Amino acid sequence: MSTSRTTTTATPRDRHIAVVINDSMYIFGGFDGTSRTNSLHSYHFPSATWTQINEDNAPSARHSHAGVVRGEGMYVFGGYDGSYRSDFYCFDTAGGGWSVVPSTGRIPRARYRSTCCTYNNFMYVFGGHDGTRHLNDVHCYDFEAGMWSMVVTEGMGPVPRDSHVSVVHGVSMYVFGGSTGASMNDFHELRLDTCRWNPVLSGRGVGDPHGQPGHRFCHVGVVDKDSMLIFGGYDGTNRLNDFWEFRFGTDLTACEVPPATILSDLRAFVGSESLSDITFLVERSEVHAHKIMLMRCSYFRAMLEGGFRESTEQRTIPIQGVRKVIFMALLEYLYTDFVDLDLEIAMELFQAADQFGVERLKMICEHKMLGSITVENAATVFHAADVHTARGLREKSLNFILANFEAVSKSKSFEEMARENVELVLQILKLR
């Protein structure tokens, strides 16, 4: 049940969030100097009036959370309510009322002082502090699918931090400053189409075209047209009121660069006979490939460069013990550095990546499985991780089995593991 009443202003607070939706600004949460609050206020611009909105299903009183706008909704993630949080709420400004946002997948670890940005149908969470350490992981929430996933990035990104700012411009998320235990003034771009980090050169002061912003955290940042604006913050000694602008470019819409097509172009060559110079036989089917792309794999590089008989004599090279769909996924990765990975094939692809020595693909599969361990598949994952010497996956699945032994020991996968390798069962029993 929700009620509202007109007030003269919102109650005092800091470490809250504020968003603008249509003709109103909404302020939620924060710290009033004595206690955390979960009060929600709106300010209606045309009438210049404040309203306090009381809602029974509001998130717990908290501060240092993050918020974004999507449509008519104000979305609130994480924060600190006496514990570090990773919960996700939406306040519907059109219909009224708070609701928990449906979430599946790998939910980010609890944290505060992180940032959230929206791009198309996605929300990106970066950094923060989990109560033990600073973070620099990137998580993505798909609003249409209602699913979280961890973003595997490339390039040299920001070191772990909290109290930074993040904004979206074009197809990129930009991160400036923050605290790593010391104040920072580095500036980074994450391309959201390629998931690659790039450093960004310095900005400029408004009214001062020289220099760059000093170190700071707990500042604010916004995007206005083709500029990012930074104001204030704390440098560890002084509270700041300087004002800085970074210009992304001039009139980008007049000369917009089309998105890169190299990944889709290379993906079109996977299994294509066009310009192919090697053929494999997989499950009695011919699979065409291109030697130059196979050179990214140590197994095929040794085959093609090492004078093996396969590289010079055989027109069709048989591939044993790998299903065609798995081999095609392996080729897709070698051609594009990316694979659309379903959980159903993650283990098989992990085994193929191990067989052919594609270490990064093994890690991608391992990451997928780490976030999807259940009572029913834990023993299977543990057994496969042991066979293929995947230490991280083995440790995580073993810990899961120990924590849920009564249920896991009754699963079909545990029985199958016991039949194939009783030594693993004995290891588990010794650790209980």
Number of strands: 25
CATH architecture of the domain at 2-255: 6 Propeller
Number of helices: 12
CATH names the topology of the domain at 2-255 as Neuraminidase
**Strand proportion:** 25-35%
Q: Residue ranges: pLDDT <50 for 5 or more in a row? A: 203-209, 250-254
Describe the model.
By secondary structure, this protein is an alpha+beta fold. The protein has a domain of 254 residues: Neuraminidase, CATH 2.120.10. Helix content is 25%, strand content 35%. It contains 12 helices and 25 strands. The strands form 6 sheets. Strands 1-5-4-3-2 form a 5-stranded antiparallel β-sheet, with no helix packed on it. Strands 10-14-13-12-11 form a 5-stranded mixed β-sheet, with no helix packed on it. A hairpin with a 2-residue loop joins strand 20 and strand 21. Helix 5 packs across helix 6, helix 8 runs antiparallel to helix 9 and helix 11 packs across helix 12. The longest helix has 14 residues. The chain is globular. It holds the Pfam family Kelch_KLHDC2_KLHL20_DRC7. This is BTB domain-containing protein. Keywords: Kelch repeat, Repeat.
Structure keywords:
432 residues, alpha+beta, Neuraminidase, 5-stranded antiparallel β-sheet, 5-stranded mixed β-sheet, 12 helices, 25% helix, 35% strand, BTB domain-containing protein, kelch repeat, BTB/POZ_dom, BACK, repeat
Q: How would you briefly describe this protein structure?
A:
The chain is of the alpha+beta class and 432 residues long. The chain contains twelve helices and 25 strands.
